[in-house]
Amino acid sequence: MHLQMGPIQILLMQLLADGSEQEITGLTTGGWAMMLGSIAMVTALLIFCIVRIFSESKPSEHHHAPLDIDTGDHL
Amino acid sequence: MSDPDLQNQTKESWGSKTGVILAVAGSAVGLGNFLRFPGTAVNNGGGAFMVPYIISFLVLGVPIVWCEWTMGRLGGRYGQNNGAGILYAIWRKAPAKGVGALTLLVPVVVYMYYVLLEALCLRYSIAYFTGGFDSHIGTAVEGLTRGTAEYNDAVAGASVAYAVEQFALNENGAMYSSSMFWYVIACFLVNFVIIYRGVTRGIETFCKFAMPLLIGCAVIVLVRVLTLVNIGSGLGFMWNPKWELLKNPEVWLRAAGQIFFSLSVGFGLILCYSSYLKPSDDVVLTSLSASSANEFCEVVLGGLIVVPAAFLFLGSSHTPESTFQVGFFTVPAIMHLMPFGGNFFGGMWFGLLFLAAVTSSLSMLQPAIAFLEDGFGLRRPVSVTLLAIITAAGASLVMYFSINAQALDFTDFACEFMMIVAGLAQVLIFGWVIGAERGVKEANRGSDFELPRFMPYMVKYVTPTFLIAVLSMWCYYNAPDRIRSMSPDFKGIEAALVTQFPDEFKGEDGPKEKIARVHEIQLKPTAKRPEWYTQPSEEIKVKIAGARLNANIARFSIVGVGLLFIIITAAIDIACRNRIGRTIAHAEHTQNLLEA
User: Under an 8 A CB cutoff, do A28 and B164 touch?
Assistant: First the structure.
């Protein structure tokens, strides 16, 4: 087995070394704003889409084929 | 026009709108959402990363998704369910075949390594539920007290060692003799059995069950993480914005890249899936729903689980950007360190990753299956068997060359490049070949709501410009290093240099100095090169041989992908001249008759 000094080993050394750890005590005001803002945005978009989909008339599902054919007959 | 073969074709289609949304969301939601996004965000500005990320989503992601869905549905009207046929139906010119080749090649090649990661997720999930991972860690932490820094470091080290052993990162070919081999076989079987059952009975049915289960599991793990003591510090590490990093163009590139790869655009998957829609089915709301489901999984579930927990247990140095490192070095350690039910949550976490990976890998197989059927009239058992043989051959090579995941890494690099090129080409085809106004009109047909009025300008000018900038920056930041990595001479000298002078290149400018020194030695004739390189010690000799082998694997991977591209382009050319061309003509003829 050839043990090379690849990225895996370098990372392993980094993991086990006493690196310069960041001291973070909690969320700052900016952190709260970005976290809640991002979550609110994607959740609102998802809810908007779900509401639009389920507010559509039900019969549209499974009932395509006959309606898709435009025979050109307009009586 | 009375080709009986064409007239007997039965066209598959989605069973319901919910089914297609879950299938497309399932194809987009993968390991990248849960592992790549948090690593990328925390290393590129934390909360501030969301600014370029959201801009990229609106300017790049959503318009491309709309373009691809519209072109896919349009191609479906011509009887085409594969990217190559769809693009050829839209643009009957030779370049369309080249772009079409990318939409078939990328998913197949990505599948060749993605299936290994899928197998690894399954392996970890079972190891957590059966206690196998615990017993591995147990020997590493013997005599240490739980909760101490030494204990956590030992767990982190053992977690890395476990991943190295499972993925055979230190020895080529070792995966064949380990249990991982059988997990890969199991994943192949699962994927191909589902894909054999077809779009509605296979993919749609599976995604309808897998997606809610996946989100349910993720919510359970999320609740556990958010109820950890002092989780606020972890959330702060992930979300506190570092605004100054927004001046760095690389951060903007990372955000655009994350959106691009996360939404699975440029892949050909969306083209394929949307081609199974009916001509009057909505694409605007359906595609936005699939994209928003993907974003929810990424930002809410991905952004709140891994990095906050990793910071809490292991500190700030354990959140690398690489998906593989986050997923298989860091996460297993934090799941083990999690008090009260770590094994259960670990098993559930990797189980949900496995489901996410399966839904994604199914979407990687379907475009090629559709091409074999549309292009050559193969029946499903034949097309599935043929694709299984092709992907198994590729995956076996990636499995064999597993040292430092070199083959996987370089194949991934080539695919990223091809995806951006294919994405750019598709937007240009939509904006300039179909015509932006005509394209938007086509998108609005049957839609739940109409696209904004500025969309034609967006897809014609803004999105392509943004994509060209992304492609240029991507090449600028990645190409030089990758090209150097493919040079056995450069890598050999570099390995010898680092071994000979282990403390010399550790500073901030270390990497640049190292490259300059290697180039300096490269320029010298062999006789004048340093003695430690020309007459190396045993240790250096091993390092040089290993580094040269890695460089050759990288070359081989790139050449292999290039050869596949040529073969697929030739196959597309043959199919377009024959069956695909006839099917398109037949569809046009039928539509003309209906209109007459």
Answer: no
Q: pLDDT tens across B440-455, in order?
A: 999 999 998 899 999 9
Listing DSSP states for B356-383 in one string gives HHHHHHHHHHHHHHHHHHHHH---HHHH
CA distance A56 to chain B (A): 8
Query: How many angstroms away from the CA of A30 is the closest CA of chain B?
Result: 6
Closest CA to B495 of B542, B555, B552: B542
pLDDT 10s digits, B147-175: 888 898 899 899 999 999 888 888 888 99
- Shortest Cα distance, chain B CAs vs residue A24, angstroms: 6
Domain membership flag for residue A46: yes
The answer to whether B75 and B300 are in contact (CB under 8 A) is no
Structural domain that includes position B114: 15-446+455-477
CATH at B373 = 1.10.4160
Q: Is residue B535 part of a domain?
A: no
Test the B interface: residue of A1, A2, A43, A58 with most B CBs within 10 Å: A2
| Neighbouring C-alpha atoms within 13 Å toward the C-beta of B449 | 13
Residue B437 CA to residue B430 CA, distance in Å, equals 10
**Is the CB of A61 inside 8 Å of chain B's CB atoms?**
yes
